[in-house]
Amino acid sequence: MGLLSEGTPLQWSEVSKYVDHVREHGIIQLLHTLEKYKNRQNDPFLWGDEVEYIVVNLSDGKATLGLRQNDILGKLMLISDSENVNFHPEYGRYMIESTPLKPFDASWDSLVDLETNMRHRRQIASRYMTPTEHLVTMSSYPLLGVGHFAETEGTVKGPVTQSEFMPDDVINLHPRFPTLSSNIRERRGKKVEITVPVFHDVNTPQPWVDPLLKDRPVGVSSQEIYMDAMGFGMGCCCLQLTFQGASIDGARDLYDALAPLTPLFLALSAGSPVFRGVVADQDVRWNVISQSVDDRTDDEKKTIPKSRYDSIDCYISRKNEILNQNTDFYNDIPVLTNDKVTEQLREGGLENDPLLVQHFSHYFIRDPLVIFEELLDQDDKNSMDHFENIQTTNWQTMRFKPPPNASIGWRTEFRPCEIQFTDFENAAFCVVVVLLARTIVANKLCFYQPISQIDENMKQAHVRDPVHRAKFWVRLSVQDQDKDSKPVFKQLTLNDIFNGNDEYIGLLPLVRDYLKSPHSEPLPEKVSNKVNQYLDLLSKRASGELDTAATWIRKFINSHPDYKHDSIVTEKINFDLVTAINKIGSGEGWNTIAQSMFRGF
Ligand code: ADP
Ligand code: MG
Ligand code: MG
Ligand code: MG
Question: Which-ligand-closest: CA of 411?
Answer without folding.
Answer: 1
